[in-house]
Design a protein that fits this description.
By secondary structure, the protein is mainly β. It has one helix and 22 strands. Strands 8, 9, 10, 11, 12 and 13 form a six-stranded antiparallel β-sheet that branches. A five-stranded mixed β-sheet has the order 3-7-6-5-4, with no helix packed on it. The chain has a five-stranded mixed β-sheet with strand order 17-16-15-14-19.
């Protein structure tokens, strides 16, 4: 399904997407970017079936796609990020036996690389957590085999099977029932702070993937993953009442990858808050999350 509107507050028109050229299913498109010529690139989270003989566990992969008609039809460009570690079907998190998934993609300000920020659920504890990889801008039409993971200070590990050095390592393994790890990073460039901002979920420290809270962190340079600051919690799990935090800008040309001083905060696809960034936000002042100034939700076409 694709929904289109001239502005977020306008009526949205929705229609089915033609996925006849899609090779991987099921999938969730978790990031998209529109080129200046109108070509739309997307990246999806794919959960293959039959990974484990029982228990329903899977091991996600990350793939790429392209659309030449504004998203009405899509063409699969293949898997670009996949774990090289064996699956562990004894995992007790309830969902994943390994894999890479739950991610976002952003083009850097110089338009040289697309940066992937993803969750690694596989391998030893030292490699699990939130990791990163990148794709050269000129390789966007042929991404399979062109994405490289960050490992041990270099961007040289292949996207398929390569090793990772997490930006935020897991404290307890994803194979445990009581995992403790950040996951599901959502990154945008903040024009007010002149820095990149990342929101994170944190699962801790009970069974069934509980949402402990929503966290925020900042960085000026995507080429230096260790420069991301230690995440700070801005909302507890009870208040968030869901996963997948995301900042979406409200101004002209803004989006989920570009926002300013005040933007909308979404959790699980619903926005009940405005988030206001403070001048010192990246050096000690957390943003203000306010649910008292949210306008009525826009109508949906056909409802």
């Amino acid at each position: 399904m694709i929904s289109v509107a001239d502005d977020w507050s306008d009526t949205w028109a929705s229609q089915e997407i033609d996925v006849s050229l899609q090779q991987h299913s099921p999938l969730w498109i978790e990031s998209a970017w529109r080129d200046r010529d109108g070509v739309v690139f997307g990246w999806y989270h794919h959960e293959p079936e039959g990974v484990c003989a029982s228990g329903g566990l899977t091991a996600p992969k990350i793939g790429a796609l392209v659309s030449y008609d504004g998203g009405k039809t899509i063409k699969d460009l293949g898997i670009v990020l996949e774990s090289g570690d064996p699956v562990d079907c004894s995992s007790m998190n309830g969902f994943f036996a390994g894999g890479h998934g739950d991610f976002s993609v952003i083009l850097d300000r110089s338009r040289r690389y697309f940066y992937f920020f993803f969750t690694n659920y596989a391998g030893g504890l030292q490699s699990q957590g939130v990791a990163t990889a990148r794709l050269a801008f000129e390789d966007r039409f042929r991404p399979a085999g062109s994405v490289y993971k960050y490992y041990a200070g270099k961007w040289e590990e292949p996207g398929i099977g390569g090793r990772v050095t997490p930006i935020f390592p897991a404290r307890q393994s994803w194979q445990r029932e009581d995992t403790d790890s950040f996951w599901g990073p959502a990154v945008h460039w903040n024009t007010f702070l002149r820095q990149y901002v990342m929101l994170l979920n944190r699962s801790c420290c009970r069974s069934n993937w509980p949402q402990e809270g929503i966290y925020i962190t900042y960085a000026k340079d995507l080429t230096v993953p260790p420069s991301w600051q230690a995440p700070r919690r801005i909302m507890d799990g009870a208040e968030a009442n869901g996963y997948y935090p995301q900042v979406v800008g409200q101004g002209p040309g803004e989006s989920d990858s570009l926002a300013g001083e005040t933007a909308r905060l979404f959790v699980h696809g619903v926005s009940r808050w405005l988030i206001s960034f403070l001048p010192g936000g990246a050096v000690g002042e957390d943003p203000i999350v306010d649910d008292s100034r949210i306008p009525t939700a826009p109508p949906v076409a056909g409802q």
